[in-house]
Amino acid sequence: MNKLRKINKFLYPILSLVFFTLLFYILLNASINGRLFPFAFGMLFALTWANQPVYFLAPAYIVAGLLHNLSVGYAIELLVTIFVLVVPYFIHVLAKKNIKKWELGIYAVLSQVATVVLKSLADGLVVLNILNVFVGLAFMYVCIVFFEAMIIRGLTSKFTVLEIISMFVIVMSLCAGLVNLNLFGFSFLKLFVAILIFVFASASTPLLTMLLAITSGLGALISTNSALFVAPFALWALVCLVFKSKHRIFMAISVLCIEVVISLYFNIYAFGLVEIMPVALSCLIFLIIPKRLLENLATIFNFSKDRLAMKNVVNRNRELLHKRLSNLSEVFNDMNIIYRNMLKKGMTKEDVIEILIGEIKEKICAFCPEQNHCHCTFAENTRKVFAELISIAFDRGKATILDLPSYLTSRCKQTAGILGGINSLTAQYKKYISMAGDVDTSKLIIADQLLGISKVLSALGKEVNSNISFETVRENKIIDDLTYHNIVCIDAVVFEQDIHTQSVSLVVRNEDKDKVRIVDCVSKVCGKKMTLCESFSSSRPNYTVLNLKTAPRFDCMFGVAQRTKNGSKVSGDTYSILKLDGERILFAISDGMGSGEKAEKISELSISLVENFYKAGFDNELILSTINKLLNLHKEDIFSALDIGILDLKNGIVDFIKMASPTSFILNADSISAIKSTSLPMGIVSDVMPVVQKKVISGTDLIILASDGVSDSFESDEAFEECVKEIKTKNPQEFADELLERALSNNNGYAVDDASVLVIKLFEN
User: By three-state DSSP, how is residue 563 classified?
Assistant: First the structure.
C-alpha cells in the first residue's frame, strides 16, 4: 500500500503537467478566424480560480507556449502573463484571502498588457488586440461557470442549462484548436469529437447529443472558416442515437460505416488507413469505457434526476403512511379488547338452579302455612326436589305432575303453583339467556372485525415500511425501446416492491396502450416476464397509464359444471373464482342446506362474505369464525358447507379450507391426493374450526372441487376417487363436464341434489 502511494505521488505531478500542457497547447492553436487567440490565457486564469495548483499551471503554460511559438517576443508575453498570475496568487495565499471573480478579471486583463503592446507594435492592429483580451476575459468567466459544476461541485448533481452551454463553449474552443493539429493525416479533432458523441449518446439526451455534434463542427468552422466537419459530426450523432437502445458495438460500427461512406462516396476529405484511424480508435476506446462510468455521467446530463425529489417524497409519504397505519391498528386493537371485556359472564347451571329455587320460595312458598315445615325440617329434600324439577324443565322445556315425587304431592298443597312457577321462570330465563347470548355473539362479531381491521392495517403498515428502490437506467432504456418500436412513452417509472416483485408504470398514447409489444419490451429490459395489471386514464389528455408487474411463476385456468336438483328452479350451490391480488387466486364452492331458493340465498350469502373478507385482507381463521357467528345468529336453521382454496401463483402453494365439504383432489400424471373434511357445516354451532391443509402443486396439476350432489352419487370416497383418476382429459372444462356426467349416470341421469364441479388447472408462465 505504501509503495502504491509513493507511485501515485510520483505519477500525479507528471500526469498533471502533461495534461495541462496538452490543454494549453490545443487552446493556443485555437483561434477565431485565424486572427484572435483568446482561449489559452482565459483557461489559465479560470483553472487558477478553480483551485488547480499554480505550480503545475505555470510551467505547463510556458512549455505549451514555447512549443507553439518559439520566439523571444512570444516568450516575453508568456512570462508577463505568468508573472501577473503568480504574484497576486501568492499574495492572496499569504493573506489567506480567496481571489474574487472581479479581482481575477483585473489580473487577467493586466496579464495581457505586454501581449497587446508587442502585437500592436508588430501588426498595428491595436483594436483587434484589445478585443482579443476582452474575448478571452469572457471565455474565462464561461470556464468558471463550468468549473464550478465540474471541479468544485463534483459529479453528484445534474448540470444546469447555463453550465451545459459553458461546457459546449469549451468544447467549441478545443475543437477550434484540434482542427489545426494533424499528424501525417491523423485527425485529433475526429478522435476527440467521436469519443464525445459516443459518450453523450449513451449518457445524455438526443437533443444534447445533436447540439454537441453541431457545436464541435462550429468550433472547426470559427477557426478555419470551413464548415467541412459540421455535417459529418451531425451524421455520427444521428446514427449513434438510432442504435442507442442496442448494444454499444452497433453504435461504433454505424459511426465507422458513416465515416467510410462520407470519405469514399461524398469525397469530403481524403480516405486512407491513417485518415480512418481516429474514428476506429475512438470506437475501441468507447467499447472499453466501463458501464458504471457512463451511468455516472448520465446523472449529469440526463433529466432522470429531475424526478429525484418526487421519488424522495414517495418514500417519505410511505414512511408517514406506515406510522399512521400502525397507530390506527393499535386503535382498532384497543377497541377489540374493550368489546371483549363487555361480554356478560354466563352463570353455571347450578348457579341458575339456586337462583330459581330462591324465586320459587319467595313467590310460591312464602304464603304457605307449611313453609317452615318444608324448608326447615325437610329443607335438604325440598331443595333437591326443586333442583330436579328445574333441571327437567331446562332439559325438556316443561316439568309435569308426573315428575313430582309422591311424598311431595301427599303433603304439599301448592304443587300446581310450584310446577307453574318453575316452568314459567325457566322459560323466562332460557329466553333471557338466548337474548344475552345473541348480544354477546354480536359483540364478538364486532370485536372480531375490529381485530381483523387492526391486523389488516398492521400488514399494510409493514408493506409500506420499506423504501422503494427506483431503477433510473431501466426507465430510460424502456422509453428508448418503446420509441424504437413506434410506441410513444412520455414517462416511465421502474421500482422494486421486494426482491421478487418489480413494478413498472408507463404513460403512453391512447392509440398505443393495447399494443402487445409494450409488455415484450418491458419484459426484455427488466430481464423477467412482466404482466399488465391495470390501465387508467392519465391526467394528461390522450394518454393512458399502464401498470405492469413481475408475472408470477404460475397461472391457471378453470372449468365449471353445474346441475340443479330435479324439481328445483334454482341451485343451492354457488361457486367463486376471484383474483385477490396479482399473485393469489381464491376458488370456492358453497353448498347451502337443502336446495331451492332458500339454499341458494344461504350459499350466495356465505360465498359473498368469503369473497369480501378475503378481498379486504382478513386471515382465514377470523373470516370463517365471523361468518359462522353471523349464520348462527339466525333462529332458523341456516347451514352451509364451504370448500375454499387459496392458490399462491408465486410458489404453487394452495391452502385448502374445508367445512363439512366433500373430498377434494389434486390430480397429476403420477398420483392423486385427497383433501378431506371432518368439521361441521357453518351455522350449526357458534364455535367451529375448519380443516386447513397446505399443499404444494406443480405446473401440470388439476385441482378438483365438488359439492355433495356429486360426491354422494358414488358409493364411497374410494369410488369417487377412482372416477376422478379414470378421466384422461387435461382440459379443465372438459374434465368438469365429464365428472358431472359420470356422477349423474350413477343415478340414471337424475340429479338427487344440486351438483357442482369446479376444476382448476395450473400451468407455468
Answer: strand
Phi-psi label, residue 259: left if phi above 0, alpha if psi -120 to 50, beta otherwise:
alpha
CA distance 245 to 578: 40
Q: Nearest to residue 311, comparing CAs of 152, 120, 493?
A: 493
8 Å CB contact between 660 and 684: no
Rounded Cα–Cα distance for residues 223 and 203 (Å): 29
- What is the value of pTM for the model shown? 0.49
Asked if 182 and 220 count as a contact pair (C-beta separation under 8 A), the reply is no
User: Quick one: average pLDDT of 516-545?
Assistant: 86
Nine cell digits for residue 381: 329434600
CB atoms within 10 A of CB 638: 22
Q: 115 — phi, psi (to 5°)? A: -65, -45
Cβ(296)–Cβ(155) under 8 Å? yes
Q: Which residues pair with 694 in a beta bridge?
A: 655
Nearest to 713 by CA among 755, 674, 659: 755
- CA separation for the pair 674, 704 (Å, rounded): 10
Long-range contacts formed by 67-72: CB under 8 A, 24+ apart? 67/21, 67/25, 68/25, 68/28, 68/29, 69/28
Do 209 and 201 touch, CB atoms closer than 8 A? yes
Q: What are phi and psi of 447, to 5 degrees?
A: -65, -40
Answer left, alpha or beta for residue 185, where phi above 0 means left and psi between -120 and 50 means alpha: left
Instruction: Indicate if the alpha-carbon torsion angle 590, 591, 596, 602 is positive or negative.
Output: negative
* Residue given cell 385477490 in the structure block: 580
Interval 142-154: pLDDT, tens: 999 888 777 655 5
Q: How confident is the model at residue 35 (pLDDT cuts 50, 70, 90)?
A: confident
Say which range, 143-157, 414-428, 589-603, 703-717, has the weakest mean pLDDT: 589-603
Radius of gyration, alpha carbons of the chain: 45
- Specify the DSSP class assigned to residue 537: E
Any alpha helices (H) in 650-731, and if so which ranges?
708-711, 717-726
For residue 332 the three cell numbers come to 382498532
Core vs surface per residue 447-481: b (16+ CB within 10 A) or e? bbbbbbbbbbbbebbeebeeeeebbbebbbbbbbb
* CA torsion through residues 179, 184, 185, 191, sign: negative
Percentage helix, strand, coil for the chain under 3-state DSSP, each rounded to 5: 60, 15, 25
Q: Other CB atoms closer than 10 Å to residue 755's CB: what's the count?
A: 27
CB atoms within 10 A of CB 734: 15
Distances (CA, A) of 258 to 192, 482, 517, 607: 17, 25, 30, 68
CA-wise closest residue to 604 among 633, 640, 579: 640
C-alpha cell at 498: 421486494
